[in-house]
Structures are given as C-alpha cells and as structure tokens.
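Try it yourself: sequence plus fe (ii) ion, in.
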Amino acid sequence: MEDRIKELLPELADIEEGALRDKVVAVYKAALERGGWQPEDMARLPSTLLIDPPPATYVEHTRAVTRCAVAAAEAMAAVYGSRVNINRDHLVAAGLLHDVGKLLEYREEGGKFVKSELGRMLRHPLSGAALCYGFGLPPEVTHVVATHAREGEGARATPEAIIIHHADFINFEPFKL
Ligand SMILES: [Fe+2]
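Structure, out:
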C-alpha cells in the first residue's frame, strides 16, 4: 500500500527528512484503512462535495495545493530571503496532509460521495489533525492541517499555515466562478 500511495502522491519525494516522509505515509495508510478505501480511490474521490460536479479529484487537489505552496514559498524566498522563514519539509508534508481527514469525512453510497457519520461531527481539519497528532507528526504540520480552513480563522500562527490556507483556496474558488 505504501508504494501505491507514493505513486499517487509523487510530491512525497520532495520531503527530505525520511522519518517525516514515513509519518506522512503512515497517516495516509491509516486514513485509507479507517475510511475503507484503497489508495486508487483517492484518484476518484472528489476534491470537494461543495461543487457539483466536482472540479477535481482528491489527488489532483492535494498535489496542486502542495505544488502551489512550494512555488509561493520559493518566490518569497527569492525576493525576501531570510525575512520569511519557511520550513520546506513542513510545508510539503502539510500540503499533502491538509485534506487527509476527507478520507474519513466522506463515504460512498450508491456510487455517490456523501458525508460520513464522523464527517458530520468532525470536519476534515479536525479529523486530519487528530490523525496527524496520533502518528507523531511535528506540531507545526498538525497546526497547518487543523487551521487550513474556516476552523482556523484567527488561529494561524505560522507562514506555512497561511501559505497552505491560500494555496487551498486558489485551488477551490476559481472553480466556483
Ligand atoms: Fe480542506
């Protein structure tokens, strides 16, 4: 299962620290198992239930958010230098994990994707952060997962959290126009 996760999310290779990469994969493995999914299901799960038909798959959205975040961080580092301190490994890990709770928030029923029982009580930022905490992800990464959406308004405390929040929304709002 680990190899298939790495094939579907090639940006995992951009995480330099092996132990961090392994933890990201471990969270994915647990989320897939608990959600009753196979890794390949991530390539047909919708990126959102709020736009019908969905504009992208879970994998496409996750990869695009991660890549947009890295591109933004590189642009800021090129211009501002050390005035903005961004941990690239944390940024990539957080980009890949920001929506991992959707694997628990969604379920499939009669060929349609709908909210799960858990998802009605805990939106994906909360379930995703719980998974990250349980698998020992650095608090800096769990913070981004917890605060990337509306739950995090007023609570984002790091550049990585702000960048992932905006990368997420630029990969969502254009599809609503
Ligand atoms: Fe999200």
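One thing you can check immediately is this: The chain has a mean pLDDT of 97.
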